Structures are given as structure tokens and as C-alpha cells.
Amino acid sequence: MGTEPSPAAADVPEPPKGSSAAPHLILIDGSGYIFRAFHALPPMTRPDGVHVNAVFGFCSMLGRFLEQHAGTHIAVVFDSARLTFRNEFYPAYKAHRPEPPEELIPQFALIREATAAFGVSCVELPGFEADDLIAAYAKAMEAQGGQVTIVSSDKDLMQLVRDAVQLLDPIKQKPIRAPEVFEKFGVTPDKVVEVQALAGDATDNVPGVPGIGIKTAAQLITEYGDLETLLARAGEIKQPKRRETLLENAEKARISRRLVQLDADAPLPEPIEAMVAKPPEPARLGAFLREQNFRSLMARMGVGDARASIPSRVSSGPAPVVEADPAAAPFGPYETITTEEALRAFLAGVDGVLGLDTETDSLDALKARLVGISLATAPGKAAYIPLRHGSNDILNPAPVQLSLEAVLALLGPVLTDPGTLKVLHNAKYDLEVLAQPANGGIAVAPVDDTMLISYAMDAGRWSQGMDPLSEQHLGHTPITFDSVTGKGPKRITFDLVPLDAATAYAAEDADVTLRLWLKLKPRLREEKALALYEQVERRMVGVLAAMEMDGIKVDGVELRRIGDDFAGRLVTLEAECHRIAGRAFNVASPKQLGEILFDEMGLKGGKKGKTGAYSTDARVLEDLSAQGAELPKVILEHRQLAKLKSTYVEGLASAIAADGRVHTDFSMAVTSTGRLSSTEPNLQNIPIRTAEGRRIRDAFIAEPGHVLMSADYSQIELRLLAHLAEVPTLRDAFEKGQDIHARTASEVFGIPLESVDKESRRRAKTVNFGIIYGISAFGLGAQLGVAPGEARGIIDAYFRQYPGIRNEMERLKEEARLKGYVLSPFGRRLWIRDIAAKDPVLRAGAERQAINAPFQGGAAEIIKRAMVRVPQALAAQGLQARMLLQVHDELVLEVPEAQVEATAMLMKHVMEEVAALRVPLVVEVGSGKNWADAH
User: Fold this and answer.
1) Position 770 pLDDT exceeds 90
2) Cα(534)–Cα(169) distance, rounded to whole angstroms?
3) Cβ contact 551:884 at 8 Å
């Protein structure tokens, strides 16, 4: 029968713009699939002699597409016949094309049967080309407020690209949007028809204007605007030959335009409502594949004799045939692989999907030494390959094991095979470990990450660690790391763990990971989280791994200078504290400070805790400062400076690697809102609003010949508030580019816009951001320095002016109470713990979280969408900038000095176009030799 081609792992596009809640119609160009399949595969016949190579390839591609892509509606569109309405006014149109090969003709009908067997609508109409129907359906879906993805790389369809419509190249699995169209034609999509009319198309017998190609046509259309204007002013063209050619062939150009212009008003043979995406019926699909004798496809798709349902998964190879319940097989015993023969035998069992995990001697992926690799091919079928195990017992030498080189010679091709999906948990760590030269320098792809699969559905619901997920979904408690390595001073590194214990622990990890994948991956489509996982979370793995490995350069000399300055200021502040107190005391001692503030100085508001000492936390000191007390204010300044010195100055200095750069670790599945967090060191909490915080950013520098660039979303959470809530005045302010805080001050405090001063604007800004976080009257009063009663009056005035905001907040709280979660603007479920708690304090906190989560979650997803697009966009433009950091709403890049302007323009374009809100997204870009100067 031959073998199915193995295209590269899918780079799944996201819907062109807008909320994932909008309908999304996928239109597959059937002819493109048919001819690609026919020419890619060798001749194949059924037992009855019918040729089926195109049918097999079509089924493979359609099946894989359905596993990889999520849409609310889907159809395959076919050409009905050779002759269309275009042949009526231009008989030569496509007349020179040869008839299809004889062995392909009988397969056309089978391919239409295959489409129906997959549960996908099959659309065609005599007299019209498939491209016309695609144009008509795209127009109809757009009119309904939906999004459209056209699966084709046909240049004729590029004229349809717009905000709501994109193409997807089925070979490269890359989206085609306006930049790709411009690269192809030199004009925006709305001008493609004008360029084609001039350039013609020999493939379709579109005459065009002789001697004018795409490049010249693009120049002419850019200059004159459209074909008719060009033809009307052709006499003005200075080049005599071009002028004469245009004048002589004007009618050919007009005919060509009619030929290439797609008929977006073509009749719709089937209503869009009938194209709702649904999973195939296993019995029907199995019967069709069995009739064609496609046994390998039956096994891969889990139908017929293999399995009762199709798993929703992403893979470039066949799926293993497994038990219906991934937890059914026993957990172990597992195999220890110490010979090449045993490894070859185990790898022979790999059938398209491989569970993978690494064991190392460090949690720092960039420093970790690979100790062993564990693999799983099916539930209960797992093994451990020790690589660098030693012994701390003089009587027991190091165990016999394979060398890293020998293992990678056999395993490396599997790890890089695009036809084998590698399933990991927290894949970013393992990919970085394996990418290090000392560990083989292997670029593993394609991968799925069970941590992120779970996170896409259950952010905030429970921990995304492998062990808790195993207990939650498999009912199995895995062996703990502590149980094999020990604890505390007696802990040993994993390379000293005996092989039997190492195998039981490590192989189980790979086994559990594979079982979690089998359990959780099908849920993605059911939970409407497939697009989020494929388009955002999964693609972030490689993006973040590259950022972490690149790191950001830190000037150690400048850092020491800052540290010395801070140390001097701390001494001065400590002396000031002693002066105010009237005696020396330990400024870092809360007990001594409390005694001075409340016993000796007699300040009001002191409360003792269980230890008998007064509380002197930040809130207490801020309250005392607001009352005019001098010492608490100086103590707060001392504490902030001391924290900056210890956490950032000293912490950063110790984190500078041998390459002079700091490599943070971005945690992908910790927050309940989808936000990334940064650790080891944390680079997301360096203060920007204080002079000291800005000084620390002075130490983050660019390499010679480069600058650091900051691209920062402006007021993104407030824009999301205006997007979600019915607040016409806020939307109007953003549309006009007004100062939103001044506008709020004017409307809430009743001040003419031109009379709003800095203090009124500051108060309005505090209210704007406080409302997003569900702030209380007490909290707002503390921030504004007013009594809670006055703060309550401000909040009430705010809601009277913007009732839509209150309505949205109440809706979110009710949604959380009813469902246990709220939805981000893009459809991510954000689970809210304690929303049903009996404790009113816990419940109130959960309600505030429910209010804020969609705004933080929406902002997080917008910048993630930008992050997965930026590297590709930079590469497409030939720009050498590198993305280094993400700090909430900001991206930091290192950019060659000669490419600053081009990179800034690209960043604004990419970041501002990743989502369609009801108000504009605005990105502010700056650059400088250091991070502080980039703002």
C-alpha cells in the first residue's frame, strides 16, 4: 500500500481576530488536498483493483487536520466541473489544462464519500469554481460576525484575506495574512485582483498585459490605485513601451480582472448552519476505511477494529492501540535498558506517540547534567535508560550502562522525527536539558505537554504538577522523588540512586505522562480549549525555551555600584530612624519597632499578635504614615531599599552566568489567570515607578552594537474593561486617544476635562485600576488617603457614571457562583476557588478574584498571542532581534542598532493586531542601551 507522507509538525493558526466565542468557519480547498495526495503517494489499489492513493492521502490529511484544528463550522469545497461562467465570456479560460490522470478520475467520488464519512460537509455547485464558493461562504460568515480560515495556498484566494479571513498553507501549516500577501504580490489583499489583472496567469490562461509581471503591476497599482484609474491615465506613463502596451491591451486587462475576481455573491449550495463541526461517527468512518482496506488509518484513528472512538490529539504519526481506560494497565514493573539491542527492541514498539521524561542532577535546565531518559510507548509499557549513574559505595562500582552517544544514535532520530509525537510533562524543562551540547544538543519536536493541556482547561482549579494530576485523573499516586533520593542532609543526587529504584521512579513518570495525555487530550475539544492549547500554550513552549536560553545581559560592575549606593543610603536611613526614635534600635526587628511606635511614642492603632508582639507590617506602617507619623515613613523606605538590595542587587549578581547574562525561568502553569511568572531570579517584580527600581534596570544592558527595546501594551486591562462592559464613554475615550484617567476624573468628579489637575487624575487612576481588582471602600480610602465613607461615595459616583461596569462585575460574580469559573475574553476557563466558601472573608476574596480574573487573563492571553507570532514575524522580515523577557504587559528585545526602526514598526503591528477588541490596542515602543532607557 505504500506509506503515508509525514509533513512537519503543525503550527496551528489561530482564528484571524476576535474572541474565540465567535463562530469560526474552516473552508478546505478540496482540489488542493486531492492533487497533493495523488502526487505525493505511489500507486495504491484496493483488493478489487480500484486506485486509492489519492483517497488514502486525502483521508490522512483530513483526519490529521480535524485532530489539529478547531472550528465551529467546517466544509470541504470542491470544483464541480471544468466549465464555469467564466468560460461563457472567455472560452480560453483554463482550456489548455490536460484532463486528470485516468487512475485519479474514479477517486473523485470516493473522496467525496470520505468527506461525508468524516462528518464534514461537502460543497460544490455546477457553473462555479470552488474558489467562488469559498469567497461566498467567507462573505456570509463574516456578515454573521464570524471568522474564516481557508485551508489553501492558492494565490487566487489571497484576495479574500482581511481581518476576519485568513488562509492556512496546508503544506507549511503556516497562516497567510496580510503581510504574507504583501510579500507575494507587493500590495495589500484588497489590491490583489488589480495586480493579477495586469500580470495575468499562464496556468489558467488569464491573458493580462504582455510584458507586465507581478512586480511592475504592484508598482503601477500602488501609484494609480486601481486598474481603471491606471488605464484611464495610461497616456501619462513616461515609458513609451509600457504606455503603448497598456493602451493596446486595456480590454485584455479588464477581461483578466473579471476572470480573477472571485464571485462572493455566488449561491450557497448548503447553509452555514448545516456545516457545524462534529466528531466523525466511528461506525460510519470505520466502515468506509475498511472498505478501502486502509488498515493503518483505522488503527491510527481508533475506529473499526482498533478503538470505539477517535482521540482528539495532535500527532504526525499513527496512534497506539490502547485500552479504553488509560489507568487500566498495571503501573510497572518497568524495564531498565542497558544494551543497544534492548533499546532497539523497545524503540520498535514506538507507534507514532512516545512518552518522554528526563532525569538530571539539577532543577536548572541550563546547568543540568542528563542522568537518564525514560520512555513509554503504551500504558504500562515504559523503560528507563540510565546514562550517567555512578556509585558512592566503594564496594559497589558504577552500574553498566550505555553511553550518551550510543543512546542518541538510536533515540535521536525518534526524538526529531516529525512523524512521532513526543509527550512530556513540563516540556520546556526537558527540551532545554536535551538542547544543551553536553546533553546531546537534540532539538526535540513535535511535542505535546500534558501540564499545559490540563492548564488550558483547568487554570486555577488544582495544581498542574504530574503527581496531583495523576491522583486526580488516574487515581494513582506516583512514587515520590524524596522516597528514592532521601531528604535533607541525607539526600543524594539522582545519579547515585540504585538502578532498580531509579527505573521504578523514572519510568513511571513517562508512563503516567502518556496516560495523562490519553486521558486529557480528548477533553480539549469537549471543553472548548483545543484552540487555546494549540494556538497559544503549546506554541509558547519553544518561544519561552529560546528566551530562557538566550537570557539578558547584566552589567556586574554597574550592579556593584548600585549596591554600594544602596548600602550607603541604608546607613543614612537607619541613622534617621534612630534620630526620630530618640535611641538606637534594630531597624529590622519588628518587635523592637512595635515597642517604639506604640509603647514609647504612643501612636494609636497598635495590635498585638499571638506572640505578644505588635504588628508592623506594611499596611500598619502605611496607615501610621497617612496619619502624619514620621518614623513609619522612613521605615517603609528602609525596608523597600533593603529588599531591593538583597533580592535584586545581590540576587542578580549571584545569578549572572558565565556568559554574562541572567537566565530566568518562566513558569507556564502556576497562576490561575494564565499569566506567566518568573523565578530564579524573578525579573517581573522590579519596581518601575521608583527611582531605585529604575536604577536596577540600568544594569540590564544590550550587547555591543545592539539596544534593548521595550514594547509595552498601554492600559491593556482598562481596554479590556471597556471591551467587556457596556461603557460608551470609556470606549469613546480610547477611540479618540484621550487620557483615560483625565476623562474619568472629569466625568466622575464633575470637572471640565481641560480643568483636570494632576491630583484629580491620580485619584481617578487609582479608582480605575482599583475597580478592576474589586477594591473595597476601605481599600480605596487607604490608597487615596481618605475616610472609607468618602471612598464609598467615590465608588458610588463611579458606578452611577458607568453602570455597565457594575453590571459586568455582578455578571462575573454570578457566573463564578454558578459554574465555579469565569471566562476570559478569549474563552479560557479561570477557576475561582472559595467562591462557595461559607467563610465570608474567603468568599469576598473569591468574588474580587472573579472580577479581576478576566482582565488579567485576557491581558495574559493577548501578550502570549503576540509572543508566538513575534519570532516568525521577525524571521519573515529578516530581522535579527531576539525576544528576551516578558514582564506582564511588556516584551523586552535585544535589537541590532541598524534595525531599531524596522523592529519597532513590526512590534507595534504584530502586538496591536493579535486581537480585535471594541477599542484599539495600543503598544508603546522605546529603546536604549539599557532597560531603564528603553522606557
Assistant:
1) no
2) 17
3) yes
Residue whose C-alpha cell is 526529531: 416
Mapped onto helix, strand or coil, the DSSP state of residue 408 is helix
Q: How many CB atoms lie within 10 A of CB 625?
A: 18
Closest Cα partner for 702 from 870, 555, 548? Answer: 555
pTM: 0.68
Cβ-Cβ contacts under 8 Å for 62 (sequence gap 6 or more): 28, 33, 76, 114, 115, 118, 120
- Cα atoms in the 13 Å half-sphere on the side-chain side of 54: 26
Q: How far apart are CA 503 and CA 494, in angstroms?
A: 11
User: Which grid cell is 615?
Assistant: 504588628
Rounded to 10°, the helix 840-876/803-819 angle is 100
- Residue 422's DSSP bridge partners are 354, 447
Q: Please give the Cα distance from 389 to 498 (Å, whole number).
A: 8
Cell of 556: 556586574
In whole angstroms, what separates CA 39 from the centre of its chain? 35
Distance CA 116, CA 137 (A): 19
Three-state DSSP state, 427:
helix
Q: Which residues are CB-contacts of 201 (< 8 A; sequence separation ≥ 6)?
A: 156, 208, 260
Burial-class residue 1 by CB neighbours within 10 Å (0-12, 13-18, 19+): middle
> ∠477-483-488 over CA atoms, to 5°?
130
Which residue is listed with cell 476635562? 753
Contacts of 868 (CB under 8 A, 6+ apart): 535, 536, 539, 540, 543
Q: How far apart are CA 62 and CA 77, in angstroms?
A: 13
Q: What's the 3-state SS for 666-685?
A: EECCCCCCCCCEEECCCCCC
| 236, burial (CB in 10 Å: exposed 0-12, middle 13-18, buried 19+) | exposed
Q: Which three cell numbers stand for residue 667?
A: 513558569
Q: What is the CB neighbour count within 10 angstroms for residue 468?
A: 14
Give the pLDDT confidence of 143-199 residue by residue, as tens digits.
Answer: 999 999 999 988 999 999 999 999 998 877 788 999 889 988 999 999 999 999 999
Backbone angles phi, psi at 316, to 5 degrees: -105, 20
The Cα 826–Cα 28 span in angstroms is: 24
Judged by DSSP in three states, 506 sits in helix
Distance in Å from the first CA to the final CA of the chain: 61
Task: Count CB neighbours of 602 within 10 A.
Answer: 8
Burial (CB < 10 A; 0-12, 13-18, 19+), residue 604, is exposed
Report which of 155, 141, 145, 151 is spatially closest to residue 120, judged by C-alpha positions: 151
- Report all structural domains of the chain as residue ranges with CATH numbers, in order of start: 24-275 (3.40.50.1010), 335-527 (3.30.420.10), 555-655 (1.20.1060.10), 723-851 (1.10.150.20)
pLDDT in tens, 401-425: 999 999 999 999 999 988 889 999 9
How far, in Å, CA of 538 to CA of 314, rounded?
Answer: 11
**Rounded distance between C-alpha atoms, residue 635 and residue 910, angstroms:** 45
The number of CA neighbours under 13 Å toward the Cβ of 777 is 13
Alpha-carbon gap, residue 170 to 540, rounded angstroms: 22
- CA–CA separation, 469 and 462 (whole Å): 8
Distance CA 58, CA 55 (A): 5
d(CA 332, CA 325): 16
* Dist CA 24 CA 47 (whole Å): 40
Residue 787, CB half-sphere, CA atoms under 13 Å: how many?
3
User: pLDDT tens digits, residue range 653-685?
Assistant: 999 999 999 999 999 999 999 999 999 899 988
CA 700/CA 688 separation, integer angstroms: 13
Q: Which residue is associated with the grid cell 493602451?
A: 247
Amino acid letter, residue 726:
E
Q: Which residues pair with 168 in a beta bridge?
A: 151, 175
Instruction: Return contacts of 787-791, CB within 8 angstroms, 24+ apart.
Output: none
What does the alpha-carbon distance between residue 242 and residue 224 come to, in Å, rounded to a whole number?
14
